[in-house]
Specification:
The relative contact order is 0.26. It is globular, with a radius of gyration of 17 Å. Strands 2-3-1-6 form a four-stranded antiparallel sheet, with helices on one face. Strands 4-5 form a two-stranded antiparallel sheet. The protein has about 100 residues and is α+β, with helices and mostly antiparallel strands. The mean pLDDT is about 90. It has two helices and six strands; from the N terminus they run E-H-E-E-H-E-E-E. The chain has a single domain, classed as RRM (RNA recognition motif) domain (Alpha-Beta Plaits). The N and C termini lie far apart (about 45 Å).
Length: about 100
């Protein structure tokens, strides 16, 4: 079963393919994506890697978490699920508005 990994502490010049190559040394990578600012295209310094199995994901976490890559210390851990939201307004008012 596929397992997703969160990676922080990335060098701002790293590409998604470079991230994939780094993780492929420790297991089968399905996809790798460096997250970029939508306006500037500049890397935000973190990304996500989908591994083929939980075993491959754990091997990457063990091998890469806390290591230095391009003079930056990597934080590598299992991706946490986003909390579910109701899709309502994000303003300070907790009551829903209907127009």
């Amino acid at each position: 079963m596929q397992k997703s990994i969160f990676v922080a502490g990335l060098d701002f010049g790293i590409t998604s393919s470079e991230l994939q190559e780094l993780f492929a040394q420790h297991g089968k990578v399905i996809t790798a994506k460096v997250v970029s600012d939508r306006d500037s295209g500049q890397s935000k310094g973190f990304g996500f890697v989908d591994m083929e199995s939980a075993t491959d994901a754990q091997a990457c976490i063990s091998a890469l978490n806390g290591t230095s890559y391009k003079n930056r210390t990597l934080v590598v851990k299992e991706k946490e699920d986003k909390p579910k939201t109701d899709g309502g307004f994000r303003g300070g008012n907790s009551q829903r508005r209907s127009w």
